[in-house]
Amino acid sequence: MTKALYRKIKDTIRARILSGQWPEGFQLPSEHKLLEEFKVSRMTVHRALRELTEENLLSRVQGVGTFVAERRPSVSIVELRSISDDIAARGNRHTATVQRLREVKADAPLARQFNLPEGATLFHSIVLHRENDVPIQYEERWVNPDMAPDYLKQDFSLVTPTKYLTQLYAAPDVEHVIEAALPGSGAAKLLNIAETEPCLRLTRRTWVQAQVITLVVLIHPGTRYRLGTWFRANPDTVPLAQAL
To answer: Which residue segment(s) compose the domain that 64 sits in?
Structure first.
């Protein structure tokens, strides 16, 4: 019986947070008031609040109270998802500005990433993504023209490069490398941050049957974004981090 009660309290509080009834930073009613509302024991309320805190929905400040935690935008490091879908799932508005869209000649290091000869033609794009008008991702991408010949004809302010390419290739092989890094002057200017601000940099390469489709570098301000995932470990498979 106690288990069902604390889950009911968790579900009620979670629903109030996700609906916006209790926004970020909102101070929850005291435990005494929650006891009166739910008509349960202090232990039951305490367990519900503790587990919601462990799930990062609540933040408890000793001697002050319990608050709705700040929810920084996040992106999965395992799934291949468009940032526009992540933003929409949070109930927010995605906008994008195309900074560059052109042909380039691959230098030696870039050519090796695509298994192409030096000087081969690649498509190059830079797109800035915003969430509710706040810049949260700088995307610099190179694409193999043989794999996406119409890439330069797309309007990436309407459809993200990730969404466009996954429509062409629904199940590519994917490599992710995640690093802490400084943004560089160009990315810092577009993201409206200092060049000294720590960022999360995700480098992703995708390919199909040994043909590399794209190489992309995604830069997120560390104070505005986080990378994460949820999964159930399978002892019969090699962990992603080990595979990399």
So the answer is: 2-68
